[in-house]
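Shipment paperwork, digital attachment
Item: protein structure file
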Amino acid sequence: MAKLCAKGKAAAKRKFDVYPSAYANMYASAVCSGKIKPGGRKKKANGGIANSISQDRKRVSSYEQGGIAKGCGAVMEKKRKKTKKY
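Attachment content:
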């Protein structure tokens, strides 16, 4: 059985709470063989911030256009339940 490289062993110790385990050793061997990069993905390619263009799809179905509801659970003000104050 071949020894694990230091880079893979260190990555497994950072990722898993219990290092000498089957999952940690499998991860370490994958890092050593080059199948996995130790850091993984850090962020989305284009920043990941939602803009108004991607939000347009959510506004397609609304009561005015004959749909059933607005996206994201939004409720029209006239359809909202009124709370009574006693």
